[in-house]
Amino acid sequence: MRGAARGLLLAALALAPQASAQPPVRVRLLERLHPRQLDVQGPSQHSLEASASRLLLDGVEVAQPYVLADAAWTLRLPGEGPRHYRGALSVRAVRGELALVLLLPLEGYVAQVVAAETTPGTAAAALAAQAVVARSFFLAQGPRHADADVCDLAHCQLLRGSGVSAAHRAAASAAAAATAGRVLVLASGAVAETPFHAACGGHTGAPEEVFGSAATGAAAVPDTGCPAHRWQADVPLGVFQRALAPLLAAPAPALLAAEALDAQVGQGGYVVRVLLPGGGAAAGDAVARVLDRALGWGAVRSARFQFLPLGQAVRVQGTGLGHGLGLCQAGAALRAGRGETYREILQHYFPLASLR
Ligand SMILES: [Zn+2]
Ligand SMILES: [Zn+2]
């Protein structure tokens, strides 16, 4: 083909509609591990190293970002088990660390999130509900990080490169494929920012009481049969006071006593606000997170809690795991086991949204 005909074809290609092609999802990988050097194995095998702002590939400086083509890649970091990913891998050196971004199609991302966010053996309908929720959660939001759309941590949605069996990966991929392109939408037509959590303990919470917006499509609903998931943690009084004083604007941390605090309890029994008379107020979710961080994570497990003063400690007692908003993963698994479809499961937790 020559001359004008070729020119016309190129023009036609340039004008072809692009809207249907979803740009790749950009996932920031392994940031918490601060990788300086790693080995990568796939169609080719390389060593990557960050030296200040220089990127070394097999010991030779290369232009950045350096992109490893779309394939199955295994990453090995010193002192860590191997991580397996499928997609293109973009690598830069930033202040002596490797900044890794995985680029993969939306449905591949959804499948990997479903695999990471659910337990093996979960019934197919619950996996399909999680796939719709993961896809909606992603599409409803703009980029959440400076150099990527999402990270691989619970801050965004989990994406593990290890510890997922081949059978569970296959089940998760089937759930993504069975619901491909389907999202929950609000009455406005916008995609719902679908939150999800591990276990509601019997009742979900009201997103508008926590986020102050109704963009989730979720509502506080009873979750019959969902186990309470009781937990309790004893927080030494000094730790309690130091953790909460900045949040509650206490004049002096030592004056902060559990007895003095008021709790505003919202729908489903979740603490919406904790108030210090004469001081400040903080969101119940923030109070739970600050106490959990002070204890080293995993102890204060939801915002449905109460304080019991024990003299030199404060006992924090609660039920449920996670923020309690939107899809309850434990409840969804039970519902799927009882024969509910993924549409019925989504309708239960997101009564203000519809499937599109
Ligand atoms: Zn994130
Ligand atoms: Zn539940």
Q: What can you tell me about this protein's structure?
A:
- The protein folds into 3 domains: 25-104, no CATH class; 107-225 and 324-355, no CATH class; 230-319, no CATH class.
- Residues 1-20 have low confidence and may be disordered.
- It starts with a helix and ends with a strand.
- It is globular and about 65 Å long.
- The strands form 5 sheets. It has a 9-stranded mixed sheet.
- It is α+β, with helices and mostly antiparallel strands and 356 residues long.
- It is built from 9 helices and 19 strands.
- Helix 3 (124-139) runs antiparallel to helix 8.
- The longest helix has 16 residues, at 124-139.
- Residues 144-145, 150-151, 153, 155-156 line the site of one zinc ion.
- One zinc ion binds next to helix 8.
